[in-house]
Amino acid sequence: MKKNIEFHNNHVFYFEDDLEQRILSPLSCIKEHESKWVLEFDLPLVDKKDISVFVDSGIITVEAKLKETYCDEHRKSCQYEYFKKSLTVPSNVDSDKISAKFVNGRLTVVLPKITRGTKIKIED
């Protein structure tokens, strides 16, 4: 719900009660491969410095903040949007080898699986 507050100099400010309107919902994808899990997030307007990825107690969390600045001849305003997604890390993931890269607005997080034993090829 927006609340309008009008001041005597004819500037109108909007205050929003609904935080969900400020939460980013980027396209995301989770893929399982034989040797790894891959998480992908489309964050095209976000700077790399405003993204964090961390693992704690078996949970991987991806956070991103988008700052948009609007200017006109009379005022300047900033708007922030926020994204956070937490997922349980599968038990077969080697948490020490998780990696992330951010290229052209796409964040890719690779969670390598723990290799146990040696696969033996059966020949003809």
Describe this structure in words.
The chain has a single domain, classed as Immunoglobulin-like. With 124 residues, it is mainly β. It is built from no helices and 9 strands. The chain starts with a strand and ends in a 12-residue tail after the last strand. It is elongated. Strands 3-4-9-8 form a 4-stranded antiparallel sheet, with no helix packed on it. A 3-stranded antiparallel sheet has the order 5-6-7, with no helix packed on it. The N terminus is likely disordered. Strand 5 and strand 6 form a beta hairpin.
Key terms for this structure?
single chain, about 120 residues, mainly beta, Immunoglobulin-like, four-stranded antiparallel beta sheet, three-stranded antiparallel beta sheet, 9 strands, about 55% strand, elongated, disordered N terminus
Note the total helix count: 0
Main sheet characteristics: 4 strands, antiparallel
CATH architectural name: Sandwich
End-to-end span in angstroms?
A: 69 Å
- The CATH topology is given as Immunoglobulin-like
CATH class: Mainly Beta
| Total domain modules | 1
Mean pLDDT: 78
Q: Per the principal axes of the C-alpha atoms, what is the gross shape?
A: elongated
Global Rg = 21 Å
Helix content: under 10%
Number of strands: 9
Going by helix content, strand content and strand pairing, the class is: mainly beta
